[in-house]
Write a structure and sequence with these properties.
This is DpnII restriction endonuclease domain protein. One of its GO terms (molecular function) is DNA binding. The protein has four helices and two strands, in the order E-H-H-E-H-H. A two-stranded parallel ribbon has the order 1-2. 56% of the residues lie in helices and 13% in strands. It is of the alpha+beta class and 45 residues long.
């Protein structure tokens, strides 16, 4: 794992283009709800 991007979900309103581009190049893009559900914990195991 090289990079993890976590957005508050509101990022789609202010950073739509960077986030859309990130999905194409960064396999680990999460929002805060995903963090609450343990996605990062699963990734790090």
């Amino acid at each position: 794992m090289n990079f993890v991007w976590v957005t508050d979900g509101q990022g789609w309103k202010t950073a739509h283009l960077p986030l859309a581009e990130a999905f194409a190049h960064i396999p680990n893009v999460f929002n805060l709800e995903m963090m609450k559900r343990g996605y990062l914990t699963e990734l790090l195991q």
